[in-house]
Amino acid sequence: AQSVTQLDSQVPVFEEAPVELRCNYSSSVSVYLFWYVQYPNQGLQLLLKYLSGSTLVKGINGFEAEFNKSQTSFHLRKPSVHISDTAEYFCAVTRTGANNLFFGTGTRLTVIP
Amino acid sequence: DVKVTQSSRYLVKRTGEKVFLECVQDMDHENMFWYRQDPGLGLRLIYFSYDVKMKEKGDIPEGYSVSREKKERFSLILESASTNQTSMYLCASSPGGPGVTEAFFGQGTRLTVV
Hints:
Chain A is mainly beta. Chain A has no helices and twelve strands. In chain A, strands 2, 5, 6, 10, 11 and 12 form a six-stranded mixed β-sheet that branches.
């Protein structure tokens, strides 16, 4: 079965500083990987996804993530954060061809003015 | 735009009541999901459905059942609500085909059981 580990439950960062949110997954088979963002009192919105091809994936709002198969990681990065990036971020994984989707426990990003 | 609509944003029910949470999607998606979200635990999969009348258990199906009589609608049922089922419930849908390539979420239903 697949599982996802988000190592940091909370990440505070100053405005305009870079940020990395870490995600590791466990699976012995081919996977699809996702990052979602949740703003307060809202559902989840897709930031970016890796299905195949280039291991560097660019998403919305200036975020990007790199798929590293050897380290089974899919870390999310942004070079300069804004106050509006304050939200909870979830990493998710599914086995290629499977009809389910498993999430990590989330990382709460707080951008400090 | 894909729209996933959950029938209630906030719900308060009494212990022992039978509770129905409804979810409707308008994009003809084959797959639909129910998750429960709790602080520090992230999203946990309760049930998913890959076709009408088809369902599979997720990680935490105990105390829940589901119904999918029509492709666009996926209902989560709490047969006898308990206080430990107080939580945020999120519905999602995704297109069919080989695997989940993207999931679209509703706004969530915050259920309080008193």
